[in-house]
Amino acid sequence: MSGSDGLPQLDDLDIDGGRVLVRCDLNVPLDDGSITDDLRIRAAVPTLQAILDRGGNLVVCSHLGRPKGKVVEELRLKPVGEHLAHLLDREVACSSDVVGEDSAKLCASDAEIVLLENLRFEPGEEKNEPELADRLASLGNSYVNDAFGAAHRAHASIVGVAERLPAAAGLLLADEVIKLERLLDAPEQPFVAVLGGAKVSDKLDVIGNLLERVDAICIGGAMAFTLLVARGRPVGRSLVEEDRIESVKEVLERADAGAVDIHLPTDVVAAESIEEGAAHGVAELDEIGDRIGVDIGPASAWAFSNVISKARTVLWNGPMGIFEIDDYAGGTKAVAQAVAKATKAGAYTVAGGGDSAAALKSFNMTDAVTHLSTGGGASLELLEGKELPGITALRAGHRK
């Protein structure tokens, strides 16, 4: 049955004996041809296995990196196919092209699983060209979109194919939509959002949409410094988006009018530079001088953790500092620990964005939240209240 406001599910498709074109997000980091983090590949396995269990054959497709419509040897999907074969314990036939002779031959064979070459080798992918969508659709009898991380892109494999074949959401995509929309549609109060990262410009629309739903927002990371400047506080040489200060002031005024508490750092880890090994120390904002804020300080981490401890719903998106450097990771780790405690206490907790996921992994805490989102830009756009093109295409097809 369909769920999450008309989003068609796997059970809506007649799969038995057919070949199913599945759009996955297998965009994993590679180092000299070796996969350094297979989270996205493992996340795709349940949907692929479910289709196989129902007697379907698979045509799996994904992008990898940013080849910009050209063949880039280092971005071929063969290493991904080999790892997918290992996880599924089945043979995966890797095509040398996307919609050329090799892919057509493999899809017409008795191969149970075919992996197409990197979709973004085709210039028509990101342009959503009808011809490419036609050729991709010709490779399957039905279509499943399980690439939540790319659902905000109006690409041929995301939108075009969904308009041409019986289509449904994969298990991962449906789960992401249901769990993220729960934050917007029915959050249990108190609802606390914890936002970080480099640029406030990336999160302004999210903050604006959340103001009507949350009780408090804790803001760390470099993005906090633009808000601090808007409130007249000193930030030294920390990153500030000067062109966003007026917009930030408007958001702060909305928060005040709506009785939403905005918590900003009162102390920071201040460094001479952002490089590892640079001279650094904890400083109150008034003591930052001409140094750079690289993490929230311990007093701010304690205050944020105290706010999180009272929450029944928590959204965490973005680190509190440059967590990749151990000396600047304390604030992010403190937030992760606070969110983990809230989860154990029964709160509904969601972490989204690649940096938040990477931080949890580095702390060996990927099980610290109720839901760890695989989508960065897609989750942000959904939390901004936008309809994602990939979701729109599935719902539109279901209503036909």
Report on the architecture of this protein.
- This protein is an alpha/beta fold.
- The chain has two domains: 10-174 and 387-399, Rossmann fold, CATH 3.40.50; 187-369, Phosphoglycerate kinase, N-terminal domain (Rossmann fold, 3-Layer(aba) Sandwich), CATH 3.40.50.
- The protein has helices spanning 39-53, 78-88, 101-108, 123-126, 130-137, 156-160, 171-185, 204-210, 223-230, 245-257, 298-309, 330-344, 354-362, 377-383, 389-399, and strands spanning 19-23, 30-31, 34-35, 57-61, 93-94, 113-115, 142-145, 167-169, 191-195, 216-219, 261-263, 267-271, 280-284, 292-296, 313-317, 348-352, 371-372.
- It has a six-stranded parallel β-sheet, with helices on both faces. Strands 11-10-9-15-16-17 form a six-stranded parallel β-sheet, sandwiched between helices.
- Helix 1 (39-53) packs across helix 2 and helix 11 packs parallel to helix 12.
- The longest helix has 15 residues, at 39-53.
What topology does this entry show?
Blueprint: E1 19-23, E2 30-31, E3 34-35, H1 39-53, E4 57-61, H2 78-88, E5 93-94, H3 101-108, E6 113-115, H4 123-126, H5 130-137, E7 142-145, H6 156-160, E8 167-169, H7 171-185, E9 191-195, H8 204-210, E10 216-219, H9 223-230, H10 245-257, E11 261-263, E12 267-271, E13 280-284, E14 292-296, H11 298-309, E15 313-317, H12 330-344, E16 348-352, H13 354-362, E17 371-372, H14 377-383, H15 389-399
Parallel strand pairs: 1-4, 1-7, 4-6, 5-6, 7-8, 9-10, 9-15, 10-11, 15-16, 16-17
Antiparallel strand pairs: 2-3, 12-13, 12-14
Helix pairs in contact: 1-2, 9-10, 11-12
